[in-house]
Amino acid sequence: MGYVYYGNYAMYYEVGRVEAMRNIGFSYSQMEEDGIMMPVLENHSRFLWPGRYDEMLTIKTHIKEMPGMRIRFHYDVFNEAGKLINQGETLLTFLRKEDHKPCRPPKNLLELLRPYFG
To answer: Could you tell me which Gene3D superfamilies the record lists for this protein (predicted)?
Structure first.
C-alpha cells in the first residue's frame, strides 16, 4: 500500500512529546524515578493527507496552556515536502506511581514551562 498505518501516529505523538520535553530540559525518566507517571487519557488524530513509508516526517509539538493535574499536547505532523499531513492531540494526567492517585505536576516541569506562558 505504501502508506503509513494510522495507528503509528500515536507513536509519532509520543516521540514528539518526549523530545519536546527533553528540549526544554525535562526528563521523563527522572520524573518516573521521582515517583510520578503520565498515562495518556485521550488520543485524537485528524488525517489530512496520507503519509508514505520511508518519508521523513517532522512533528511539531505544542503545549497551549500551563498544566494542572492534566497536560494537553498538540501535534502538527509534516511530510518532507513541508505539507501538513496530520494533526493530533493527547491529554495526559500526572499520577503517583505508589498508589495511582492524581497529583500535581513536578515543580521543575512548571518552572521550565513558565517562561513560555508569560
So the answer is: Hotdog Thioesterase
What grid cell was written down for 52? Answer: 508514505
Which own/partner contact pairs does 7-10 have at CB distance under 8 Å and 24+ positions apart?
9/45, 9/47, 9/77, 9/86, 9/88, 10/43, 10/45
pLDDT digits (tens, 9 = 90+) for 8-43: 999 999 999 999 999 999 999 999 999 999 999 999
Please state the pTM of the whole predicted model.
0.93
Percent pLDDT > 70 in the chain is 99
Domain ranges within the chain, ordered by starting residue = 8-117
How many Cβ atoms sit within 10 Å of the Cβ of residue 20?
17
Nearest to 10 by CA among 2, 18, 79: 18
Residues 6+ apart with CB under 8 A from 98: 35
Cell 502508506 sits at which residue? Answer: 3
Q: Are 29 and 22 in contact (CB under 8 A)?
A: no
